[in-house]
Amino acid sequence: MIVTAETYHVPVLLTESIDGLAIQPEGIYVDATFGGGGHSREIVRQLGKHGHLYGFDQDADAEKNIVRDDRFTFVRSNFRYIKQWMRYYGVEQVNGVLADLGVSSHHFDDAERGFSFRFNAPLDMRMNKRSGLTAADVVNKYTEEQLADVMYVYGEIKQARKYASQIVKARVQAPIKTTADLLKALGIETMTDEMGVCQPSPNMKKEMARLFQALRIEVNHEMDALRDLLQGATELLGKGGRLSIITYHSLEDRLVKNMMKAGNIEGRLQQDFFGRIESPFRMVNGKVIVPSSEEQHRNPRSRSAKLRIAERV
């Protein structure tokens, strides 16, 4: 599959998320989810001669979209190590951090990566193809209880225990290696066309989307990585620095909201002697920002997107 900046990923809430950074031309910024470089190119366009942007992405495919500009540095790493890498580059403070969380259009559309049940492909789902654990490892090696926990916690699937039991019974007969194997193990009826596109019945699509989401989050340790990103960004941002985060499901949105409102992942509110809430952030957008109807029509991936922006105080 040929990868270009245009095909890799269509940026979501591009204008709103960049405006939320309130870019200072000579400032230092981090795009924690470089992907196709859509957000990064717009940030660099607004920088002055001495401004700089660091773009993080652990996927080798993303590196092909590098912004050719002296004001840009590509960091091939998980964004959870943002603080360590900034220290490596001699950066003590930044003026803004942007992250467009979730899976890029490229990952969903690349059949070989196994992120979507639309294709019969190996159960991989690794954002970083150099890492060890795959979705096939999870479904074939985890205990029934572990599988149920993954599906319930990360997919909010009510029938998690039932599905875990079905997977364990099926893998005794033969390893579950592909997306089609997994759907078959769960007894999900599918139809495959001449292009290899595999579709569950309409009433099961949403359920399977949640299951694939749960496996993807487990494989890539997404929630732990997000916790580290939020903590690292909080420590790196200077006074007046902006945090602009786009989320796609309730689990990650809850962590972002907690950090922005309370200054910690758990959302524990701390008050001073006068009862005023103490937080390292001030919410910039009182109400969560969502894509316009036009953007949702143009880019279906944006339909579940939520943008939150906060300023370091």
What does this structure look like?
With 313 residues, the protein is α/β, with parallel strands linked by helices. The strands form three sheets. A seven-stranded mixed β-sheet has the order 3-2-1-4-7-11-10, sandwiched between helices. Strands 5-6 form a two-stranded antiparallel sheet. The protein has a two-stranded antiparallel sheet with strand order 8-9. Helix 7 (144-155) packs across helix 10 (205-220). The chain is globular. The model has no long low-confidence stretch (mean pLDDT 89). The chain contains 13 helices and eleven strands.
Please describe the biggest sheet, giving its number of strands, its sense, and whether it closes into a barrel: 7 strands, mixed
Distance between the termini: 45 Å
Number of helices: 13
Mean pLDDT: 89
Strand content: 15-25%
Shape: globular
How would you briefly describe this protein structure?
The chain has 313 residues and is of the alpha/beta class. It contains 13 helices and 11 strands. The strands form 3 sheets. A 7-stranded mixed beta sheet has the order 3-2-1-4-7-11-10, sandwiched between helices. Strands 5-6 form a two-stranded antiparallel sheet.
